Amino acid sequence: MHKSLRIAAVATACAVAGGALYGAGAATAGQSTANSTHEPYNIGLLVKDIDAYYGTAADANGVYQASPTSPYAKDLASVDKAARKYIDQAARKAHHKGEKPAVVFDIDDTLLLSLDYEKRYNYTYNATTWADYVNRADRPAVFGSPELVQYAEKKGVEVFYNSGLSEAQRSAAVENLKKIGADVNLDTDHVFLKDKANPPSYLSACATPGTWTCTTVQYKSGTRAHIEKDLGYEIIANFGDQYSDLDGGYADRTYKLPNPTYFVS
Predict the structure, then answer these.
(1) Confidence class of residue 31 from pLDDT cuts 50, 70 and 90?
(2) CA distances from 146 to 108, 152, 173, 177, 254 (A)
(3) Most CB contacts within 10 A, which of 2, 59, 123, 245?
């Protein structure tokens, strides 16, 4: 996951934005400017707010975990409830029309929680420490997300994954997803990762072998376009913790999960 920017948002603002459906045409809803002219929020207090939002606490092994009774967990439950109701209705409608319904999930902080990394490294990003962390394949689940993957499959909806993780991190990502119970369609035809060395032809507008200029939105929306146009699916829902996971179209409905720890443009 390449984090081009790490801008922590106030936890209470994220709670509102994360708990609500991210509607079409609201690409910048909930985002606050990084160029404010007034004094920024005190970073020490902000970290305390983030801890309170997640209910952050170290477990017996010293791993920072989110609390299942935290505001974060409650916001996720709200998103999950709305998504389940919609998937049920949209899947039945799509099947009636003879369409092939699909859902698309981001991975980092949509399915696999990275709170321990963020907390341990003080909300900063380093490519080496991040790669080591991902390759351990022991991140906990984002509350409710593995169950939502299973729910979609039971409703006859094809599950795809669209992640900013690199192709080199595939085995670790798949292993970790299996551990948390999101063991659905984890083959290369359904798990899309960044392959900068050999990018797929459907991203040719911004990527060629050895040259990658795709923004997150171009990469993710281009992948969704491939799922719809080339593979013949109708993406009824797209899930992500970043607005860049959701922008660019090719999804009937999008759901923004809360994440106040970093921002990817």
Answers:
(1) low
(2) 13, 10, 14, 8, 17
(3) 245
Lowest mean pLDDT, pick from 11-25, 77-91, 169-183, 218-232: 11-25
Q: Which one-letter amino acid corresponds to residue 44?
A: G
Contacts of 138 (CB under 8 A, 6+ apart): 176, 179
pLDDT > 90? residue 47: yes
CA-based end-to-end distance of the chain: 12
Give the Å distances, CA to CA, from 174 to 41, 181, 234, 239, 241.
38, 11, 24, 18, 19
CATH superfamily ID and name for 11-256: HAD superfamily/HAD-like (3.40.50.1000)
Non-local CB neighbours of 217 within 8 Å, separated by 6+ positions:
244, 247, 248
Tokens representing 223? 């992948």
Predicted confidence (pLDDT) per residue in 107-120, tens digit: 999 999 999 999 99
What does the block give as tokens for 63?
């791993």
Tell me phi and psi for residue 133, to 5 degrees. Answer: -65, -50
**Domain limits, the chain:** 11-256
Is pTM beyond 0.85 here? yes
